[in-house]
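Morning. Coffee machine broken again, so started the prediction first thing and wrote up yesterday's gels while waiting. Chain of 333 residues, entered below exactly as on the submission form.
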Amino acid sequence: MSNAYRDDERPGDRQLELSIIIVSYNTRDLTLDCLASIALETTRTKHEVIVVDNNSSDQSAAAIACQFPEVRLIALDTNIGFARANNLAAKQAQGRRLLLLNPDTIVLDCAIDRLLEFADANPSFQLWGGRTVFADGSLNRTSCFRRISLWNLLCFALGLTYFGRRNPIFNSEAYGGWDRDTARHVDIVTGCFLLIDRLLWERLGGFDPAFFMYGEEADLCHRARSLGARPAVTPEATIVHYGGASDVVPVDKRVKVFKGRITLINRHFGWPARVIGQALHLIVPLTRWCGYGMAAALARNAEWQKNAAYWEAVWRRRREWIGGYEAKRVEPA
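Came back before lunch.
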């Protein structure tokens, strides 16, 4: 990696442009591919790469150390979660900007260099993101979102987001109808490909460690906007994001996502909006369990029956997520 410095090679009289932070958990092959793409496609930006391995059981840490000795590896003996792991790495980072990058990503066409150029051209934004696609090149819409509101929660609960995926009114949270093909200000840049000024990160205190996984970047962006940041994304910086590689059980991922969303509501909604938001989340698995179940019975559709079973499992585990992460507070990393 020609532009990445080892600890003993880092110049003491100047700061690196960028610290790339990756948190891995049982994603060995994907992480190795991600690191290889960084080395290949990031040629114009002086940077370092820091990988925090959250006690993976697939020999991720050993493989990274062997194949990428120039990467600064922090191998943990316990899984401290996405938010705290990023905070831990950021404390050791040397770059004037931080790039949070998921391990299940592939950097395309100098995307990191291009994102830095976008940031340099728009420094007042303070927080930037790019465009994400799936492996087949189709759009992955999860690079950014609009903040949660009672309206988009209602649309989500009633299934209007499903039937109106491209509708900017019924699917406002996902910016329905916008293919991420223009540069635009957004409420939330997701943590799979998030660039932030180091000074802003430090003012914010990094991620709220109460979030174990999912929701932490929405909280960060909310607090950043309150300090004057204007998050924006550009299609000029495009990466592959496979999505959800650390969660092999879909229900487990949904439980974590709901837990994060409830925590966001608890943090940023006042009463009675907070109570309404929690109730709408309870409606989500019920409407889908009942809807898919009835449709499957009428049409004898095996796929719909699987969907019904999935949402039934989410409903039955509601006590795990309805309180958010509030019940188990953690100390900062």
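DSSP finds twelve helices and twelve strands in the chain. Going to sketch it on the whiteboard this afternoon.
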